[in-house]
Design goal:
Blueprint: H1 2-14, H2 25-29, H3 38-45, E1 49-58, E2 61-70, E3 76-85, H4 89-103, H5 110-116, H6 124-136, H7 143-159, H8 164-176, H9 180-196, H10 200-216, H11 220-229
Antiparallel strand pairs: 1-2, 2-3
Helix pairs in contact: 1-4, 6-7, 7-8, 8-9, 8-10, 9-10, 10-11
Length: 230
């Protein structure tokens, strides 16, 4: 679950850097354990380089190894290893992305860099439960999985009452359940917390989710205002 989350976050953060074109996590996942030649995977993804890696977790300690392979030459053009903690995956994420971009001689603005080291929570247990909730949302057609995700996010909030993203995703669970008032209540709670803590990445997430909610709820002026803020 943690490996899944780190990969997803890295891809989303790299997409914020304009010189980089990165396929979505779901698109990349289709080629997991693929036996296709690297050149064919690269052609289908329309990329020049492919980054792969492995992660070792012992207790709260993490060790991540990654390498970048040029799809033109087939040679490894970059490799690195990092050690960190499950409490600070945002910091680890920032180190990995910075190393990738340094290798590619890409400079990034400071306001974008802040997103790369953002810590959603310092409570490792709350974070792990939150990630289980997000994984359950990959099966939203299954109502039991939605109930499961709801339970995970509620428990994450019990462990960290300031966990903005847990409130936000709980709101989206209620959105998928078509319980729009409950969804709005959770997202408004997340919005207050994000504002009080000057949490810019969290604010962007909440405004985007509010836009999605109000669009489905046919409250279009509110949807537009929130999408603009995100």
């Amino acid at each position: 679950i943690l490996c899944h989350s780190i990969s997803d976050n890295m891809i989303e953060d790299l997409k914020k850097v304009s010189p980089i074109r990165s396929p979505s996590f779901n698109t990349v996942q289709k080629f997991k354990n693929s036996k296709l030649p690297l050149s064919e995977i690269a052609r289908r993804l329309n990329v020049d380089n492919i980054v792969s890696g492995s992660m070792l977790k012992v207790g709260n300690k993490l060790k991540v190894s990654m390498e970048m392979v040029s799809t033109h030459s087939g040679e490894v053009c970059w490799a690195d290893v990092w050690e960190g903690s499950t409490k600070y995956t945002g910091t680890l994420n920032g180190q990995m992305i910075s190393s990738i971009l340094d290798n590619m001689d890409i400079e990034i603005p400071e306001h974008i860099k802040r997103y790369f080291t953002y810590e959603m929570t310092e409570n490792a247990e709350a974070n792990e439960i939150y990630l289980k909730g997000k994984q359950s949302l990959e099966y939203i057609q299954n109502h039991d999985k939605l109930n499961e995700a709801e339970g995970y996010f509620i428990n994450a909030i019990k462990l960290d009452a300031q966990f903005v993203e847990a409130y936000a995703y709980l709101g989206m669970v209620y959105w998928w359940m078509a319980q729009y008032q409950k969804a709005e209540n959770q997202l408004e709670s997340a919005l207050v917390l994000a504002k009080e803590s000057f949490n810019e990445p969290g604010l962007a997430t909440v405004y985007n989710f509010l836009g999605i909610l109000y669009k489905r709820w046919k409250k279009y002026p509110k949807a537009i205002r929130n999408f603009e803020k995100s």
